[in-house]
Design brief:
By secondary structure, the chain is mainly α. 77% of the residues lie in helices and 0% in strands.
Length: 197
């Protein structure tokens, strides 16, 4: 598995995983509900960038995260620009990018062990209904950490296709799916080897 955690002593690094997860959930709901215009969406994005500074992340880390999302921004923004409006393209693209960057910051400032332990505690009441808390916690944490990983795969594949001067159509998604599924198999094998599945 790719370890995304970057050691540090910032306030976000020292903050327990529970408040960070709760904050991510609250921000996601708030952004989806209230950030419906260009000013508020831009404010959310700037706020997330400020959190990267608060976490004392080098600007190249934030730049790399944004760079990985460039094709998502172009495709989503371009589609909405063409079929809806430029404002809708900016608002929707900005909100999605801000939330992905926020999830990325969570993984950069929180160890996987802390994340899993927090998720297990939060899901413990569901045991009485037969929910496998460990499996659900592992699934959620893997989903959060896989967002930047898949984005990096997309960037690598796009750069490789450009280097070969290959024109990418709808079939360009196939190599990304293959690489993502292969990585999922590797993660599954690693979890099985550790007796986690």
């Amino acid at each position: 598995m790719i370890q995304l955690y970057r050691p540090g002593d910032s306030i976000l690094h020292r903050l327990p995983a529970a408040p960070k997860l709760a904050g991510l959930a609250v921000v996601a709901i708030a952004v989806s509900t209230f950030a419906l215009d260009a000013w508020s969406a831009t404010g959310v994005l700037l706020g997330v960038c400020a959190l990267y500074a608060l976490a004392r992340m080098p600007w190249r880390v934030l730049a790399a995260e944004v760079w990985r999302l460039r094709w998502l921004m172009l495709v989503l923004g371009g589609f909405l620009w063409f079929f809806v409006s430029p404002i809708a393209a900016w608002v929707s693209s900005t909100r999605v990018v801000a939330l992905i960057l926020l999830a990325g910051l969570l993984t950069l400032t929180t160890r996987m062990g802390e994340l899993l332990a927090t998720l297990r505690r939060a899901l413990r009441p569901f045991r009485r209904w037969g929910v496998d808390v460990d499996a659900v916690a592992m699934t959620i944490s893997l989903a959060i950490t896989m967002i930047p990983v898949v984005a990096a795969f997309a960037t690598d594949l796009r750069d490789a296709q450009r280097a070969r001067n290959v024109r990418v159509g709808i079939r360009g998604i196939v190599p990304l799916l293959v690489r993502t599924l292969r990585h999922a198999d590797d993660v599954g094998d690693a979890l099985a080897a550790r007796g986690l599945v």
